[in-house]
């Protein structure tokens, strides 16, 4: 055991001395691995950060929440020309579903695509995403109220001119002033601020922090949700013990009957579960990871070839020294380990520099990105270290084998 430890120590010492004596060559060799590791880990960190942001933004919503829409959130077999003829979801559709579908814990009607300037006295912010939605969204979305309250079902049904502001929007409009009871102008109309949503932070797209919530019935008094108007959607949160397969089937059958569709006609609506949307996002994230690996893999390949090339040059330059070492009794494995260590140290150093650069990038990105958080996980860092070590071993094994198999007499003669 002590013999092998001594062999390991001496081989490592020879490798470090060789690297120290050729500083420029060492730097150029590890540069390729640095770029490769930086590319891979930077891509993985960026994709992981995006994935975490999306999952966090959806964390408050029950994964069984169902969206009933006339448009599809993901790929569909229904041709585009057919989808464009589907009747948008109206408030009457929502009332039918609310009255006739069982096992619903909460429901809401939402209108999409409404961006407006929000004004308070001389202050204005915008364009801001306005979310015209019925009161049930409070029990579906999972956000909390920091100040005041959310509008009631009565205010929602009557279309009361009230508004609940996101935390960031309230700060921008009112600074340190208490927004409750104040009057803001949206759509050119006056609305009373009755609540402020608790700050949530970064999310997928804009977050409740940057939005304003108003009763959908209020917006319906002056906005159209037909084919040429703003798209609407019905949101349903099933009860926890509901059979989701049966729930979706009953929803489809009753809504088909309500729409008067014949048995041979396709659904002119889409039923989408949040869980399915999350799976779609996971597929996109996985594809981004694969593309990142492919692109970054070329950088690593170039780095590995660079190390292998330098190791062959190193073997050529030190042929005479190898012959002397072997003539003095150095075993083949001593020569093998010497060059393997040299290649591995080169790759590991390049990998560590690459990881350090990724860390600097994440720190800088977090400083300038505001609420979006870039994450460099320990798993990704460990993966970068393992990959760089593996690249060193693979790149150095052939030059090391060729060095260890040199005949001592021929090596000394060649070196002379």
Total number of helices? 14
Number of structural domains:
2
Biggest sheet features: 7 strands, mixed
**Ends distance:** 37 Å
Q: Ranges with pLDDT <50 over ≥5 residues?
A: none
Q: From the alpha-carbon coordinates, what is the Rg to the nearest angstrom? A: 32 Å
Class from helix and strand fractions: alpha+beta
The outline comes out as: elongated
What is the H/E order? HHEHHEEEHEHEHEEEHEHEHHHHH
The average pLDDT is 76
Please bin the fraction of helical residues. 55-70%
Number of strands: 11
* Portion in beta strands: 15-25%
Domain MacB-like periplasmic core: 26-253
Pfam families: FtsX, MacB_PCD
InterPro entries: ABC3_permease_C, MacB_PCD, Macrolide_Exporter_MacB
Membrane topology: Multi-pass membrane protein
What layout of secondary structure does this protein have?
Elements: H1 2-21, H2 23-58, E1 66-69, H3 80-83, H4 91-100, E2 104-111, E3 114-120, E4 123-132, H5 137-141, E5 145-148, H6 153-158, E6 162-165, H7 167-174, E7 183-186, E8 189-197, E9 211-214, H8 216-220, E10 232-238, H9 244-259, E11 270-273, H10 274-317, H11 319-327, H12 332-368, H13 378-404, H14 408-415
Parallel strand pairs: 4-9, 6-8
Antiparallel strand pairs: 1-10, 1-11, 2-10, 3-4, 5-8, 6-9, 7-8
Main location: membrane
Protein name: ABC transporter permease
Subcellular location: Cell membrane
